[in-house]
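hey so i finally got around to running the thing on that chain from the lab meeting. sorry it took forever, my laptop kept dying and i had to restart like 3 times. anyway pasting the input first so we r on the same page abt which one it is
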Amino acid sequence: MEPRRTPTRIYARSARPEDAAELATVHIASWNETFTGIFPATVIAETNARRPEMYKRLCAANNPSNNDTGNVVGVAVAEWDSDSTEGSTESKLIGLCIMGPWETRDPAFAGYLGLLALYILKDFHGCGAAKILLRATAGLLGWKTSSEVKMGLGRGVGMICECSAANGRAFRFYEKTGATEVSRSTSPRLADAILLTLKWDPTGLEELLA
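ok and heres what got predicted. didnt touch it at all, straight out
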């Protein structure tokens, strides 16, 4: 296995059409790292099989997408000084974030910002990539937090996401950044796994995305 290298810079940007294959790879790797031994192997394999086509569709659209969902895809990139060429850099896509209006999933949360996916490769946990990616992706949706401009999906109401109850690391991260549990449900498509619905209130969301 390639040894972990400490990035000299981590940044986030809008996903591009040419990112589709690498985004699917990151999502699949993250699912394998997180859910092996938690979800049945068949569920993981069937879910991962849909990723390549999903990202082709998302990345082929405008960003925010033009597929009537209003979703936006952000990617996190780690950068290092090159070992082979002095003065140059190497980079790797290490994470992804999808945001959009939560009301497309639940009309009861009209106006809420929805955190639809957030994955960072395991080797880059703890580098600060998740917060960088959250802020940048919200910015792609028009989120502004300056004293002069306060706008964006979720303003005044908050943000919602779903998290597997078995994914303790993700839940601790969300809780640490201000999320609270509002409900629980089971997911038939995930072998009746328990899903937590989490909510950031407006103040907590502003602090997270500032």
